[in-house]
Amino acid sequence: MDFRFSDDQKLFQQTVREFLVAEVTPERIRASWQTDTGRSDALWAQLAELGLTGITVPEAHGGLGMNELDFVLLAEEIGYVALPEPLIDTVLVGVPCLRDCGNEQLAAEWLPKIAAGEAKLAIGLDCNPLVADAHVAGLLLLAHGDELHAVPRADVALTANECLDPSRRLFRVDWTPSAATRLAGGAAGRALLDAALNRAALGAAAQCLGLAQRMIEISVAYTRDRQQFGQAIGTFQAVQHLMANVAVKLEYARAPVHRAAYDVAHGKARAGVSVSHAKIAASEAALLGARNSIQVHGAMGYTWEVDLHIFAKRAWTLDNAWGDRAFHKQRVADFVLADNAAIGAGATF
Amino acid sequence: MDLAYTEKQKALRQEVREWLAANVPAAPLASFDTAEGFEQHRAWEAKLNSGRWGMVTWPEELGGRGCDLIEWLIFEEEYWRVGAPLRVNQNGIFLLGPTLMEYGTAEQKKRFLPKMATGEEVWCQGWSEPGAGSDMAAIRARAERQGDHYVINGQKTWSTRAVWADWCFGMFRTDPASERHHGLTFILVPLNLEGITVRPIPQLDGLPGFAEIFFDNVKVPVDCRLGDEGKGWKVAMATAGFERGLMLRSPARFQQTAARLVQLYKANRASADRDPTVRDAVLRAWMDAEAYCLTTYQTASRLNAGGRIGEESSTNKIFWSELDQRMHETALSILGARAELLPHAPDAGGVGNWLDGFLFAQSGSIYAGTNEIQRNIIAQRMLGMPRA
């Protein structure tokens, strides 16, 4: 029993954090809103150079062959900067589908390209009505009942749907399932889809940790600078406690997310429950972070000018993505309220 | 990261489980806030110690088992799982014990720890004063050095279990010219000394669970001082860290409450679901108790590897105390109109001891530093917000 990340995992996190904080600045994100795709090939090439696009790709296909536990700290950093690029969808959610689907030809065709930074994936599961970043994906992985299909972008029709977060690009995908696109069906298809959803929800939860942390830092800095009644507003207990409450929520969301990553990486039977708990806890931390951060900023928090909304909007959109609260609470309920549920002291591990 | 127990850890769990199954009293003990219950609990501590389970993290030569914090969590899980008696000496074993390990001399450790482990000497705290609650640095009780003694005068209050305890540990002002947290000294005081008066204070349940302690020219030997003279604040902060942090409230306690709440909900589902928020509160109780357990294992792993407990101990205390309150509120709302009945009332039915837990939970956000003080600490020391 050792609930710590390895030095290598922490070092990788540190490297990625330094890169992302330097490169993915709020200015750069705002600039991306003005472009057609909202995405940057140059940035994607840099991510590939760092090895990030190939983390989960097996070594035989030119990747690093790492797992969800190796990736989860990086997903937190992706949240911390609100990276617009579809790195989580491609690497955490999509690549394992191709790796595990049993279609060697498809894996051999796409995985090396993904590792090299030459292709991206987009994911369409039933829980989300629309598909994010379908416009820049080479291949779409789409659910159809219990079936998982892989469809080249050239074979689908996309209709853009504008949304709350200008960084987020959502599309209705019109497509026709066929024997040629079908990767798996029946129990095998359902297992692939369930696993994909767990990884996607885990990615959202990990991002929420980073988002909450970032919003705390932005807000604390603001409360040190902003003066009212002749002193920094951060000296007022009412303001301090708003931020302390976020810190408490965040502190108790971290370990559930890390545990979920461990369960997913090790294929544990209770991975779904761990993921749902993590998603609910981390999402609530990020939502409270957004709410209280706007509050301590006062009217400035309600402006387009202050960067806070970049992070708040990501938190708001992730809350109901990859399984809304009702979905995740139901999974927790199915576990906790079952006959002979493994709950109580000593039942956690 | 490896979230599986080792063979050694599994063997320890099995050993604890077997010993507790053979030794935990079949009928619950009387409340340790009664004279009878206090002695029953003291006897239980002796029994626990006879199996070397009194304080498993202590070194073997002091009657412990040299367990690390993960092993301690395993012990706690088994302990709470079977509903073993509350630890009457928790102020000693969980708070003063670790402080003594860090700041005590070899002689002090030898003198105090073994009798603490057996329950032969039960400890209470002497920190709060009428004018020093949340503002602990406002302590006024004096300890004047006279040769090889300190002469103590003043008053302490809210001392839990002081009515029957044998010793008190607390902070006293040794430098009369000092202010705030300077000039305070951490001193251990036997409660049977001449000049000490203990006056019980009835708690919400009517029992004398805490007390005021009056000191009138009480002579305490200098070797009862813990740490250096005038450096008591630093020693006390270590104790406070243990209290808010890991040792006082292990997750197992709250996981058991959450599991009991789930059972209560399932047994009363038809009536409970008339309020659709109850199910959510029950699920949340389980998730939060689980989160507390996971976070504690993460902290224990870090401490086992040589890390130190930090300001996050303040988030800890807020989290479990407010969780405990929410869980008990939910339980009472499931019990409905019968919730107000005491367990022995003729028409109480299966109301159980939720009411007792509900009352006790009211104190959780106050003792060990109010949650408002904890939030100040988080804001200022963990998040770096400015001080007034």
Describe the model.
The complex is a heterodimer of chains A (349) and B (388). By secondary structure, chain A is an alpha+beta fold. Chain A has 2 domains: 7-183, Acyl-CoA dehydrogenase/oxidase, N-terminal domain (Butyryl-Coa Dehydrogenase, subunit A, domain 1), CATH 1.10.540; 188-336, Butyryl-CoA Dehydrogenase, subunit A, domain 3, CATH 1.20.140.10. Helix content of chain A is 56%, strand content 10%. Chain A has 11 helices and 9 strands. Chain A has helices at residues 7-23, 26-33, 41-49, 68-81, 87-100, 104-115, 186-225, 237-265, 271-297, 308-319, 325-336; strands at residues 121-124, 131-132, 139-144, 147-152, 157-161, 170-174, 182-184, 227-228, 231-232. In chain A, the strands form 3 sheets. In chain A, strands 1-3-4-7 form a 4-stranded mixed β-sheet, covered by helices on one side. In chain A, strands 2-6-5 form a 3-stranded antiparallel β-sheet, with no helix packed on it. In chain A, a hairpin with an 8-residue loop joins β5 and β6. In chain A, α4 packs across α7 (186-225), α7 (186-225) runs parallel beside α9 (271-297) and α7 packs antiparallel against α10. The longest helix of chain A has 40 residues, at 186-225. Chain A is globular, with a radius of gyration of 20 Å. By secondary structure, chain B is α+β, with helices and mostly antiparallel strands. Chain B has 3 domains: 7-88, no CATH class; 123-231, Butyryl-CoA Dehydrogenase, subunit A, domain 2, CATH 2.40.110; 249-382, Up-down Bundle (Butyryl-CoA Dehydrogenase, subunit A, domain 3), CATH 1.20.140.10. Chain B contains 12 helices and 8 strands. In chain B, α7 (251-267) packs antiparallel against α9 (277-304). The longest helix of chain B has 28 residues, at 277-304. Chain B is globular. Chain B starts with 6 loop residues before the first helix and ends in a 6-residue tail after the last helix. The model of chain B has no long low-confidence stretch (mean pLDDT 94). At the A-B interface, α7, β9, α8, α9 and α11 of A face α3, α7, α9, α10 and α12 of B.
